[in-house]
Amino acid sequence: MSVADNLAKIEKQIEQACKTSGRSRNDITIIAVTKYVSTERAQEAVQAGLTHLGENRKEGLLEKYETIGVEADWHFIGTLQSRKVKDIVGQVSMIHSLDRKSLAKEINKRAPSPVPCFVQVNISEEESKHGLDASEVEGFIEMMSTYENVKIVGLMTMAPHTEDEEKLRGVFRQLRALRDRIRDKRYPHAPCEYLSMGMSNDYVLAIEEGATHIRLGSSLVGE
């Protein structure tokens, strides 16, 4: 299937999810996760009108950036090692995986201007997943006020891989409630407007529960 064909199907589901939840389609940003596909397939995604591409490895991002460059907004969505920040910080529009002080310190040191970052939260408390515990998030975000080149634009989570819709909705609702609490504090350094949640298997539920950024790989560009 072409990316354009996949996107047409996904757009119908997004429209329906927005209708169900009383939201505007304009509130949703699709990030095409290109980490498992070739540069050619990533280019196909851009040609289909997808301007946000997500990579989880420095090497993959830089390889595709060499060809596609500023035709896309690049999102770093994987675990980011502090030592690799210097290599990607000039190329990415957003980092979705801020989860520790040492990483924030390195972003602050290397970035020429404020970098929009999502704080990664392990809402489901799975040992296999990265991210802060929900109870740690507010304190962590308050601490970020000392880093002028780190701007907290939202929260990110990875839901469990399950068919249990109520369990998934519960995870998304918890992240949304946490986001609302932080947003309402109106921190200058942390507007915290966005929710990066929802992947190929659960993005419809995520949108219905408030997602603003959905990260689609297999259903959109393939594997």
| Spans where pLDDT lies below 50 across 5 or more residues | none
Q: Count the helices. How many?
A: 8
Major β-sheet annotation: 8 strands, parallel
Order of helices and strands: HEHEHEHEHEHEHEHE
Distance between the termini: 12 Å
What spatial order of strands do you see in the largest sheet? 7-6-5-4-3-2-1-8
Helix fraction by DSSP (H/I, runs of at least 4):
25-40%
Q: Estimate the strand proportion.
A: 15-25%
Kindly report the average pLDDT value.
96
Q: Radius of gyration from the CA trace? A: 17 Å
Class based on secondary structure composition and strand pairing: alpha/beta
| Molecular shape | globular
Q: Total strand count, please?
A: 8
Which keywords apply here?
223 residues, alpha/beta, 8-stranded parallel sheet, 8 helices, 38% helix, globular
What would you say this structure looks like, in words?
- The chain is 38% helix and 18% strand.
- It is of the alpha/beta class and 223 residues long.
- The model has no long low-confidence stretch (mean pLDDT 96).
Write a compact overview of the structure shown:
By secondary structure, the chain is of the alpha/beta class.
Write the layout of secondary structure elements.
Blueprint (H helix, E strand, L loop, with lengths): L2 H19 L7 E5 L5 H9 L4 E4 L2 H11 L4 E4 L8 H4 L3 E7 L2 H10 L4 E6 L16 H7 L6 E7 L8 H19 L10 E3 L6 H6 L4 E4 L7
Parallel strand pairs: 1-2, 1-8, 2-3, 3-4, 4-5, 5-6, 6-7
